[in-house]
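[Q] Does anyone have a clean structure-token version of this?
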Amino acid sequence: MESGFSDNAAVSIGGGRTIDGSLLVFTFVRSSGPGGQNVNKRATKAQLRVLVDDLGLPAMVAKRLRRIAGSAITNDDALLISCDTTRSQGRNRQGCLDQLRALVNEAHVVPKKRKKTKPTRGSVERRIGEKKRRGEIKRRRGSTGED
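[A] Here you go.
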């Protein structure tokens, strides 16, 4: 059962961006897990499929999105998100959209560059002092050589 978004209205995807609802392809399949006979009869698991290029993100943000999404990116550069946390198709659809927004918002955050630091003089002295103490303890464990 495949469908575009219920209407072609713009959908907010986070980061101050909106996307045409027709670019979001929802598929509904049977869910697993608890739910009694409802699980066997209803297709409530929602799967959202959208091409990364259709999101209209800047190149660096799209690159971070691909890295963050990992295995959710298919070979044809589509983002595949699924949600089956509830027994309602509508709430699972909303869950997919929430996951998409979270991914886009996370991709908009530019990671901080790591600044190289070196250990302080005090920490080096403490480390060397502790090594000397441990070595002294181990040296005293051995035989005294007076046998």
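[Q] Thanks! Anything notable?
[A] Residues 50 and 135 are 61 Å apart (CA to CA).
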